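hi! just following up on the protien thing from before. the input was this:
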Amino acid sequence: MRAIDTNVLVRFVTNDDAAQAAIVERLFAECQRNHEHLFISTPVICELVWVLKNGLRQSKGEIAKVIDSLVEDGLFQIEHRPLVSRALDHYRAGRADFADYLIGLLGWHAGCPGTVTFDRALKGAPGFTIL
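and the predicted 3d structure came back as:
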């Protein structure tokens, strides 16, 4: 298994640099042939969402579709896959950013009863207390 950085994932998802995207496609095809997974950490998922939202101005629905496709693709080993999926569900329905929901779920996973925040977009979100 190899870990991939956000910039590799961005090339794969957006094809915004044809030369680099071709390199990524070759790498992914090689991994597929060799039955080798590619590891995507939670910070990489969060950075990808940030790039898609802020850099490329994609909608929440477009972003959710991209993350869903990565989660469902057997090539990728997603760190905390179930939590990423749950955070994505909260993101679809909520007002806060994807990373905020994932932060809350990671805290819950670590045994914390909740997450304290100043982020008003999380008001009423399960597991969050607004300070």
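DSSP finds six helices and five strands in the chain.
Residues 18-33 form the longest helix (16 residues).
cheers
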